[in-house]
Amino acid sequence: MKGARKNEAPPELTTWLALANADWQPSYPFNEPAVRTAVVHSLFFEQRGLCVYCGRGLDLSSPGKSFHIEHFRPQHGANGRSDLEVSHTNLFLSCGQQDQDGNVAQTCGTRKGDWFDEINHVVPNYPDCTGRFKFMLSGHVEAAHADDAAARAMIKQLQLDHPELVKDRETTLALLDADKLDLADFWDVGKQVAESFGHIAYQHCGSSLP
Ligand SMILES: [Zn+2]
After folding, report:
1. How far does the centroid of ligand 1 lie from the alpha carbon of residue 70, in Å?
2. How far does residue 18's CA lie from ligand 1's centre (Å)?
3. Residue 49 Cα, ligand 1 centroid: separation in angstroms?
């Protein structure tokens, strides 16, 4: 899992949430385009431009196609916590990549849907969450510790071992090991975003993304 380095909520969201009153409660999807845009940009940079789960690069120019806003805990919690809908700490960006036929790959947030296991889950805080997983040169992913049921549950529920992801990770790690890529190729200092699977490249080299 890629995860995010969470910051404060953007001021546009905080100001909008503060408008709540007896007649109006903020809800998802945000009905203010400026608020939604600010949230998406904030999440994008917290995740260094990558899907919070698989670490594929996200394209902000095609919302709804290459990515969507993801609620880590289902937005309508069983305990009635409506704040999960609009709470910045519960919001992330997930890929929603489409193939040539327009079908969305069944991984990450698309696959997860409203699944959530209160005991067996891995909170997407980078880099701690990435360390719970072992990325093999074959491209496959396993729990770093065989007894980590939560990591195993996340791999299964998010389909992190989907053949497309396995192929892409294998390619990335092979280029890294052949010195055709180095860590500088995975981090754009100017834009402050990473290339796809940057978190895996950095972990492979014993460090973590800025
Ligand atoms: Zn993904």
Report:
1. 11
2. 32
3. 11
Q: Which residues have CB atoms below 5 A from the ion given as ligand 1?
A: 51, 53-54, 95, 108
Q: What pTM was estimated for this model as a whole? A: 0.94
> 182's torsion region: left (phi>0), alpha (psi -120 to 50) or beta?
beta
Single out the residue of 75, 86, 94, 88 nearest to residue 7, CA to CA. 88
CB 155, CB 141: distance < 8 Å: yes
Tokens matching residue 75? 């937005």
Distance 53 CA to ligand 1 centre (A): 5
The total domain count for the chain is 1
CA 177, distance to chain mean position in Å, is: 25
Per-residue pLDDT tens for 57-76? 999 987 777 899 999 998 87
70 in any annotated domain = yes
Boundaries of domain holding 106: 11-204
